[in-house]
């Protein structure tokens, strides 16, 4: 029980992922600045932002109860901390996460969607027209990028040796056959596109467009509520970096002592990849974004799922 | 103490045009480009006044923009700082006593720093911003 609480609060959970996610987000901003021939903010910028936001006043809109103002960001942070605590990170010296759940990948996936739901609910609750436009854009994008995400995870689950599994540890250790490696290579671009949409980065920064709709659902957020949303955004970075390293890279063939370090390194490589794509592209329309997902990623992921299913049988 | 460090390293800017000719606005955008890059100070141009710490006001305040200026000043969460950019926002410039001008911004809201010039040079805006950050850091 104590180990479970510790894993939610400290190690793969809240504290660790807040630190790693803050560094990843600042690294992304720094790298983007370097690509635009600027100096960019320091690597600790994300933490300064959070500290400052906690020192600011909270302005709650008149027609909005304070409960609805604070509950969505808190639920977002708590759910994503629980999702992160389920990651099986083998460590030689700490035994925080020794518990094993047979279908943990599904739980992780759905808990990691809760902050997004909270984000769009907050947009609807604020009664601001910009918030509601942003929330409706996010809701439409959510359906477009979640379908290929679920399909590629299911295809990878079917492509492992032995029976299909949704356990992340089994998926990472048993998925080293020819079909699985072929599928992983095809699915990496789809995963990266979905990650860009999930993190609201540049070609898909449609829900939080600063210049058009004033950061969408976040338009009325201020002070600690905004800080909590930023923290859950940092933790979304970590969850996607972890999923990238577990699903697509063979991290369990290296020695146990080096696994955590290699996961952190892979997270930074992932952040730099997204930053490159973010700096190279401009914002597109919602219809174009949905076209990209429906016309390219859905058919490829469905074909991949069929391939995995038939080669498995 | 820790809040002071956070505030001095992460001032978020909101840009408000109260009837400017767009000259100062372009110079503010130039601040975020590669030559004067204020993102290295942690500055970010935010879309919503509720996220902002420092409000950059450009232009003389016209009758139409008086109400939005007052509302946006109320929307900025405390602690907040206002910087007037350009001659027009300091003294209404050539528009002084115009039929549609209700006066420079400091008649309506408290202003912390002034940046002169028509249009204001990005280097001067940068210096004014640094002064504003000093005041914002103290939480006034």
TrEMBL record, chain A:
CC terms in the record's Gene Ontology section: plasma membrane
Spans through the membrane: 6-27, 66-87, 107-130, 142-161, 181-199, 234-253, 259-277, 289-310
Pfam families linked to this entry: NADHdh
Location in or out of the cell: Membrane
InterPro entries named in the record: ComplexI_Subunit1, NADH_UbQ_OxRdtase_su1/FPO
UniProt KW RNA-binding keyword: no
Membrane topology: Multi-pass membrane protein
Keywords on record: Membrane, Transmembrane, Transmembrane helix
PANTHER family: FORMATE HYDROGENLYASE SUBUNIT 4, FORMATE HYDROGENLYASE SUBUNIT 4-RELATED
Protein name: NADH-quinone oxidoreductase subunit H
Organism: Thermodesulfobium acidiphilum
From TrEMBL, chain B:
GO MF term (any one): metal ion binding
Keywords: 4Fe-4S, Iron, Iron-sulfur, Metal-binding
Cofactors named for this entry: [4Fe-4S] cluster
Keyword S-adenosyl-L-methionine in record: no
Sequence ranges assigned to domain NADH:ubiquinone oxidoreductase-like 20kDa subunit in this UniProt record: 21-131
4Fe-4S in keyword set: yes
Pfam families tied to this protein: Oxidored_q6
Family: Belongs to the complex I 20 kDa subunit family.
Matches recorded under PANTHER family: FORMATE HYDROGENLYASE SUBUNIT 7-RELATED (PTHR42989:SF1), HYDROGENASE-4 COMPONENT I (PTHR42989)
Identification of the protein by name: Ni,Fe-hydrogenase III small subunit
Organism from which the protein derives: Thermodesulfobium acidiphilum
């Amino acid at each position: 029980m104590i180990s479970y609480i510790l894993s939610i609060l400290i190690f793969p959970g809240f504290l660790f992922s807040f630190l790693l996610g803050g560094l990843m987000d600042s690294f992304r901003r720094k790298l983007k600045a370097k690509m635009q021939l600027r100096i960019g903010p320091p690597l600790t910028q994300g933490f300064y932002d959070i500290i400052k936001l906690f020192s600011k006043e909270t302005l709650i809109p008149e027609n909005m109860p304070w409960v609805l103002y604070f509950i969505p960001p808190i639920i977002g942070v708590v759910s994503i901390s629980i999702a992160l605590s389920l990651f099986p990170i083998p460590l030689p010296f700490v035994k925080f996460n020794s518990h094993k759940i047979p279908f943990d990948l599904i739980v992780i996936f759905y808990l990691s969607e809760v902050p997004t739901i909270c984000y769009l609910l907050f947009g609807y609750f604020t009664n601001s027209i910009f918030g509601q436009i942003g929330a409706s854009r996010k809701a439409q994008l959510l359906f477009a990028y979640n379908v290929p995400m679920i399909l590629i995870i299911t295809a990878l689950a079917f492509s492992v040796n032995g029976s299909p599994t949704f356990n992340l540890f089994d998926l990472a250790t048993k998925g080293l056959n020819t079909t699985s490696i072929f599928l992983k290579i095809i699915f990496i671009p789809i995963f990266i596109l979905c990650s860009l949409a999930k993190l609201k980065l540049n070609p898909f920064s449609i829900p939080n467009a600063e210049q058009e709709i004033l950061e969408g659902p976040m338009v009325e957020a201020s002070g600690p509520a905004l800080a909590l949303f930023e923290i859950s955004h940092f933790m979304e970075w970590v969850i996607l970096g972890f999923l990238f390293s577990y699903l697509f890279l063979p991290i369990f063939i290296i020695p146990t002592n080096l696994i955590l370090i290699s996961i952190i390194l892979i997270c930074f490589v992932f952040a730099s990849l997204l930053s490159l794509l973010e700096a190279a592209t401009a914002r597109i329309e919602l219809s174009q974004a949905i076209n990209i997902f429906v016309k390219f990623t859905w058919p490829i992921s469905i074909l991949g799922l069929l391939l995995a299913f038939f080669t498995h049988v | 103490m820790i809040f002071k460090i956070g505030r001095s390293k992460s001032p978020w800017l909101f840009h408000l045009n109260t009837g400017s000719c767009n000259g100062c606005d372009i110079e503010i955008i130039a601040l975020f480009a590669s030559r004067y890059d204020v993102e290295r100070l942690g500055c970010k141009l935010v879309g919503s006044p509720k996220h902002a710490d420092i409000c950059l006001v450009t232009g003389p305040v016209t009758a139409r923009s008086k109400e939005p200026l007052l509302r946006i000043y109320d929307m900025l969460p405390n602690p907040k700082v206002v910087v007037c950019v350009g001659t027009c926002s300091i003294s209404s410039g050539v528009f002084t006593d115009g039929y549609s001008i209700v006066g420079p911004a400091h008649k309506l809201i408290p202003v912390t720093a002034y940046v002169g010039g028509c249009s204001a040079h990005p280097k001067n805006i940068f210096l004014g911003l640094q002064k504003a950050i000093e005041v914002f850091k103290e939480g006034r």
